[in-house]
Design the sequence.
């Protein structure tokens, strides 16, 4: 698909599930159906709904609603109800939103999520990550957003809505004017839907962050990258663009760099897990000499090697004064290139975050980064290595810091969204860290 035509598609909506015939029970009254003690209105609404639909009351949800009712009774506003299926802790966020990641909602659950979006006019955050939602469920949610004017942040990560569902979301962006951040990473989008998003975003001036990670692409022409590059020339609102696993090569990064000479809004570019080599760094280093808006670049899991690292180092040392964070994790860089990056930090006062783990460290590399950390030029929370000494020799150990360490999971202890582990969203905030 080329040009600026509208995007549209049709699919049959799934019907709501039939109600079971079992008698609802609770952990407090398994046999006599006695009513558990109701603290507030949310618990009451949940109880009445379970009775109406002949559903068993979930004790975990009941406990969460009790806590929310108690918070509301104290006069607090803006509560987020977190029910992640893979979390062992009770999260403590306090924004108006719903987090139901890693459950088994499927298209049936998507039907009710769509109804929620149609009726709930205070919801601004919705996380449906990895819930077995397919193309039909994606269609329902996308269509519900045609009239929704409050939701700002939606995460559909890991739901296999495929090319068909992606087309409905692209069509939605032609109508919706409130959504600011959309995450469709790992959703099995096809080439047609990725190009559709590029086409729509030439006109949409509301979306500030979009994640199109790991589409299912065939062929070697990098056509989606060509269209996304064209979009960046026209779009003056997008702040964060994630293009991880796009099978992008040097030709593709050149298309993006050509657009970045004209773009003055993009601050976070993620091109990790692609096939970019040292030749692509010639283009990126050159554009960084004139671009003054890019603040975070994620080049992790490419193959820029020593030569590519040196191209970047020369620009960062002498020209660029806007880039704050650079990740070159797992790029087959050896000591010469890594030392060059460390040297650029001595003359560049703006670059604060550098991530280098997974490359080939020699003793000169270990000494160089140890010196940066010990002198305070590189803060320990702003890098993914930590020096230690054995028998008089300096080595580097890995620490759990990065641009988006908690993209797929949440820690079992400590901060849920720590600054050191999710530096990208801290340096370039686009709403909640989805």
Sequence:
């Amino acid at each position: 698909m080329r040009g600026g035509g509208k995007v549209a598609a049709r699919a049959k909506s799934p019907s709501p599930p039939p109600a079971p015939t079992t008698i609802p029970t609770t952990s407090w009254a398994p046999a006599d159906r006695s009513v558990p003690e109701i603290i507030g209105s949310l618990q009451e609404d949940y109880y009445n709904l379970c009775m109406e639909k002949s559903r068993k009351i979930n004790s975990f949800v009941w406990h969460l609603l009790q806590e929310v009712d108690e918070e509301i009774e104290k006069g607090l506003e803006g509560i987020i109800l977190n029910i992640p299926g893979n979390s062992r802790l009770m999260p403590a966020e306090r924004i108006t939103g719903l987090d139901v990641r890693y459950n088994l909602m499927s298209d049936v659950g998507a039907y009710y999520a769509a109804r929620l979006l149609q009726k709930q006019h205070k919801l601004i955050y919705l996380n449906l990550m990895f819930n077995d939602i397919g193309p039909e469920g994606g269609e329902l949610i996308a269509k519900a957003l045609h009239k929704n004017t409050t939701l700002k942040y939606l995460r559909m990560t890991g739901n296999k809505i495929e090319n068909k569902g992606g087309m409905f979301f692209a069509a939605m962006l032609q109508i919706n004017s409130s959504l600011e951040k959309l995450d469709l990473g790992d959703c099995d989008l096809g080439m047609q839907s990725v190009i559709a998003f590029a086409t729509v975003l030439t006109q949409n001036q509301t979306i500030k962050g979009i994640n199109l990670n790991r589409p299912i692409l065939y062929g070697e022409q990098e056509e989606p990258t060509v269209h996304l590059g064209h979009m960046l020339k026209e779009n003056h609102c997008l702040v964060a663009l994630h293009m991880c696993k796009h099978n992008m090569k040097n030709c593709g990064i050149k298309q993006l760099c050509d657009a970045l000479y004209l773009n003055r809004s993009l601050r976070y570019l993620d091109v990790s897990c692609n096939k970019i080599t040292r030749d692509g760094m010639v283009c990126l280093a050159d554009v960084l000499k004139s671009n003054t808006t890019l603040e975070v670049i994620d080049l992790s899991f490419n193959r820029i090697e020593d030569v590519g690292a040196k191209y970047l180092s020369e620009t960062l040392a002498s020209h660029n004064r806007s880039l704050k964070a650079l990740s070159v994790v797992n790029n087959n860089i050896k000591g010469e290139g890594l030392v060059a990056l460390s040297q650029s930090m001595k003359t560049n006062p703006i670059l604060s975050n550098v991530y280098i783990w997974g490359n080939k460290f020699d003793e000169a590399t270990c000494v160089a980064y140890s010196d940066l950390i010990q002198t305070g030029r590189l803060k320990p929370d702003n890098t993914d290595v930590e020096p230690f000494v054995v028998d008089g020799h300096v080595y580097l150990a890995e620490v759990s810091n990065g641009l988006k360490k908690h993209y797929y999971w949440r820690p079992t202890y400590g901060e849920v969204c720590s600054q050191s582990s999710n530096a990208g969203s801290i340096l370039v905030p686009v709403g909640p860290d989805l």
Notes: Residues 30 and 366 are 62 Å apart (CA to CA).
